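I am sending you the entry underneath: sequence plus fold tokens. Let me know what the token row says about the fold:
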Amino acid sequence: MTHGPAATIAVCAVALATLLAGSLGLRRARTAGDFYVASRSVSPPWNAAAIGGEYLSAASYLGVAGLVLAFGFDALWYPVCYTAGYLVLLAVVAAPLRRSGAYTLPDFAQIRLGSTAVRGASSVLVALIGWLYLVPQLQGASLTLHTQTGAPRWAGGLVVVGVVLVAVTVSGMRSITFAQALQFWLKFAALLVPALVLVGVWHHRDDAIDDGYPTAAERVTVTLDRAVTVRLPVAEELDVRGSVDGAPVAGAADLGAGEHRLAAGTRITLERGDVVPVRTSLPAQPNGSWLRPLGSGTDHPLYASLSLVLAICLGTMGLPHVLVRFYTNPDGRDARRTTLAVLGLLSMFYLVPTVFGVLGRHYVPDLLIAGNTDATVLTLPERMVGGGAGVALGALVTAGAFAAFLSTASGLTVSVAGVLSQEMVRPRERRPHEDLRARRIRAFRLAAVVGLAFALAAATFCPLLVLGIWWPRLSPPGALAGLLAGGALATTAVLVTMTSEVSGWPGALLAQPAAWGVPITFVVMVIGSLVTPRRVPPDAGRVMIRLHAPEALAADLRDLTRG
């Protein structure tokens, strides 16, 4: 590949910049507070950029453009709700959570409910969420490095794991703050500059997206690395080399409208104007439907959209690698200012991948054949521009992609490592002859490795945070019952969706479980608390005052409680 060397240099440059940023934090990381929450001294502008760095993951950098290409208008809910989730976070959680004085989400559960059982369940859920977010980062890194350089698919994930482990274990949150702030601006520039160039090229060509099915913009050959089933909306003659529906083909093939099975290694050559076959897991809708609300072709699109909105807006407040950032602010006021700044940064960023998705529908619709739509951002610059400029733009988006993988993986590692190291240290804190600060830092460094290896799945902390912050009658049994119910329901829905094909209303409900799963969790927590009123902690009132009192009074109460 002609762009391989440039992309390799770009990846190496991003990795080196991440490690250098980590070394800057090393000189100032001396205490446990430095490792866990950067001594709670990160200013709102730095913290907002760092949050943007870790929140804008592979799903944002690559996935949004791919979703827009495949699903059209309905996919715009993703960038809108990714941003709107911070508005909910600002209104409900940000300042009270910072006033709690916690290091981690399990710390908050312990402070609010005084229950080791709830703390333990929270620790498990942090690891589950970490795993859910970490897997796409490694997959995205593998896709990017393989697409841009031809490297083995395992290489990208290995690079991310290696760099993150070095950066995080050296100095924890202090170094990662510097690195993630740098990576946000790198990601933004790496998408914005190519997007401006591509929009200029598109405007110069005066190309328009018509109402018909997506067609090839130029002659292109697609080689399948795995067997897929595709759907053709119209009968067409295509040049195919390989196997179609179990029969060998080596030339022009008349493919009827409907589904066809293509074997691994099959090559399809599309000429300009050929209607593109679409993998059956994606909708094969015409561009007219693609541009309309609820035209994505999914089952029960209205329910799916509403449930998606609920999931993303409420789910943002339960992401541990996001919430840990609010522990690094000096006080609740700065936590609110940080959230407002994040809203602005995300609003600017998410305009850009949407542009890539719209242009991709016209210029790289062949990605729909194998369902490889996440490569839209990586493929589009070279396809539209070509030559040395296309290679340079491709290297730039590759650098931004790896900045996204590294920053999000770093945040996940810090959040999971902080929780695991706290659990490692707590049973031994009664041994006065040991240096607690040194043990915490050693445990953090060890847990960085453990967190990457053993985080497994995902669940939400939204009901625990909302009720814990705003409802004084929440009891440990109620909270624990809700966490177990919500985690079990969400995990079951995800597993069934991933391992089987369920259609109709059952499939829609399982694919988007937030609309029924979140209310059930709230109801379980409320009922569980109402039937166990004697288990409400005796200091719940004092903790609630601490969460909602003015900053100076909250600090005095926190110091009094610790004393």
